[in-house]
Design goal:
It is a single chain. With 443 residues, the chain is α+β, with helices and mostly antiparallel strands. It has 3 domains: 260 residues, Up-down Bundle (f41 fragment of flagellin, N-terminal domain), CATH 1.20.1330; 75 residues, no CATH class; 102 residues. It contains 10 helices and 17 strands. A 5-stranded antiparallel sheet has the order 1-15-3-11-12. Helix 2 runs antiparallel to helix 10. The chain is flat.
């Protein structure tokens, strides 16, 4: 920046004058910056709209399967043999359960030893552990103690081994080997025939046998390798803990309130989108303030598309083929609501049709999810494309703003040079005037 002479001879506040001139010259840049601010606000609002649509998408996916949409309850008398849980895949009805045997994992226990930590007490060679159908060889050498052998067996996949201290006065230590899986297929065989020498050879006794659970449901016999029986009857999971002394009766009922609660989560997510679009689509004629979505065609298409999907009739070949027929409809504001009486009445009368309307092929959820993808697909979605286009426009405007920085700086420098030259000229003229005056008065 050149030397600035601020009104030294002219008496003009050239600094303020230059600042004012620069401010006027910068008006176009400020306009571009204002446009950038407006576009960034619009971009943020569109991104938030995408987030709300993603939330709605998630709410639909949460009930996309019938087992997630539907809800059932199960009632049965308290007992020590089993507990029961149901999910949306259950079928209402009464189920009689009897348990004659619970599943167990095998346990093998060795003879008693007087010492667990001293090396060289065991016979050496190869010990083979067979778990189910898989055999593993373990090398026992003279440096191994009973505890070391337990650690080696514990490393075999599927089994757990440890040394138990029974508290016996002379020989308290026993090697315990236990399977991690229940069921008759998971037997344990420990072959010690490969151990030789003068040391002790472990011998094992089957303390608990590997066995499957045995039960009957409505008189039908069922075998399970696990005490968690989830596949016998759709939607019902039994957890067995003991045998029954008498049959346990399970009563499974449709939980209409639970189903409505599942649907309400979807309704709330949808309404959040509609409220947000409405909130940002307002125009105040008195102040001239416009919401970011005013005139935004990409958002208008979203609103129209969602409402179309909600009011559509789906060709499902059943009595109920539209949400409005089961008590779910939009009001004047465009938001959804559930007429609980109508919804639960239809649901109780024909739960299968309600479920199919939501989750069936060609039904509401499938149709809506495909529509949402048109808006928020990260590569081709209309809203994502719009956000990207705004980003490109912001970059272009920012380039113009940056160019103005250089132009404004050059303009300001030019003004300073011009005013400095003016002050210098005025100084010269003043000096000449003083000199001439001195000549006149001296004459």
């Amino acid at each position: 920046m050149g030397i600035q002479v601020d009104g030294l001879f002219s008496g003009i506040d050239t600094t303020s004058l230059i600042e004012s001139l620069v401010e006027v010259y910068s008006t176009p840049q400020q306009n571009y910056e204002d446009k950038i601010t407006d576009l960034e606000s619009k971009q943020d609002k569109l991104s938030e709209l995408v987030s709300l649509i993603e939330d709605f998408q998630t709410s639909l996916e949460d009930i996309e399967d019938t087992s997630d949409l539907m809800a059932y309850s199960v009632d049965y008398a308290d007992n020590d043999a089993l507990t029961a849980e149901v999910d949306g895949g259950a079928v209402a009805g009464t189920y009689t359960v009897e348990v004659t045997q619970v599943a167990q994992s095998e346990m093998e226990v060795s003879q008693a030893f007087s010492d667990a930590s001293t090396d060289g007490l065991l016979a050496t060679g190869t010990l083979t552990v067979t778990y189910g159908t898989t055999s593993t060889d373990i090398t026992v050498d003279s440096t191994m103690s009973l505890a070391d052998l337990a650690d080696a067996i514990d490393g075999v996949e599927g089994v757990t081994a440890y040394v138990m201290d029974t508290g016996d006065a002379t020989s308290p230590y026993r090697l315990v080997v236990q399977g991690e899986d229940t069921g008759a297929d998971y037997t344990i065989d420990i072959d010690t025939s490969g151990l030789t020498g003068s040391g002790l050879v472990p011998s094992f006794t089957e303390q608990v046998s590997a066995q499957d659970a045995q039960l009957s449901i409505n008189g039908v016999s069922i075998t399970s390798s696990s005490n968690t029986v989830a596949d016998a009857v759709p939607g019902i999971t039994l957890t067995l803990s003991d045998t029954t002394t008498s049959a346990v009766e399970l009563t499974v009922n449709l939980d209409a309130d639970g189903v409505e609660e599942n649907v309400q989560a979807m309704v709330d997510a949808y309404n959040a989108i509609i409220d947000y679009i409405d909130e940002n689509s307002q125009y105040d004629a008195d102040t001239g303030e416009r919401g970011d979505f005013v005139g935004e065609s990409s958002v208008q298409r979203v609103g129209i598309g969602l409402r179309t999907a909600l009011t559509s009739q789906f060709d499902l070949g059943q009595d109920y083929e539209a949400l409005s027929q089961i008590g779910i409809a939009t009001d004047k504001s465009g938001t959804l609501s559930i007429d609980s009486d109508t919804f639960q009445d239809v649901l109780t009368t024909d739960p299968g049709q309600v479920a199919n309307l939501f989750t069936g092929s060609g039904g509401f959820i499938e149709n809506m999810l495909s529509r949402l993808d048109v808006y928020i697909d990260p590569y081709e979605g209309s809203l994502e494309t719009r956000i990207d286009s705004i980003d490109d426009r912001i970059d272009d405007l920012q380039d113009i703003v940056d160019e103005y920085d250089d132009r404004i700086a050059a303009y300001e420098e030019r003004l300073r040079e011009q005013f400095t030259a003016m002050e210098s000229l005025l100084g010269s003229l003043q000096s000449s005037s003083t000199y001439l005056s001195s000549l006149i008065y001296s004459g």
